[in-house]
Design goal:
Elements: E1 2-4, H1 15-24, E2 33-37, E3 54-59, H2 65-78, E4 83-87, E5 91-96
Parallel strand pairs: 1-2
Antiparallel strand pairs: 2-3, 3-5, 4-5
């Protein structure tokens, strides 16, 4: 289950990020996952968190690299090419970063 952490500020997230959270939430069924950071937290200066384009998800307890890598692959399949999904050893960083110049 994916839940929102008590200190996580979601107000100000872009609609694309909110939709991404809703789309990937079922992937965490059976796990204790927490949305830990959205527009809050301390990140690098140019972080997309500050513009509402990124969020972080942690799993409580120990998570093997295999579980993290497997979930990254599942998340990437659900989201489109405008999202970057990064497994950072203890959490997933997911950011909405539209690719410029893409023709559909």
């Amino acid at each position: 289950m994916l839940r929102i952490g008590s200190s996580c500020r979601i107000g100000g997230l872009r609609p694309e990020a909110v939709l991404a959270i809703a789309l990937i939430a079922p992937l965490f069924d059976g796990l204790d996952a927490v949305l830990t950071h959205a527009i809050d937290g301390r990140h690098r200066r140019a972080s997309l968190h500050y513009t509402g384009n990124a969020f972080d998800i942690d799993l409580t307890g120990d998570v093997s690299g295999d579980v993290g890598t497997s979930l990254v692959m599942k998340i990437v399949k659900v989201l489109d090419q405008d999202f970057d999904v990064i497994w950072e050893n203890d959490h997933w960083h997911i950011e909405y970063q539209p690719k410029q110049g893409m023709n559909i």
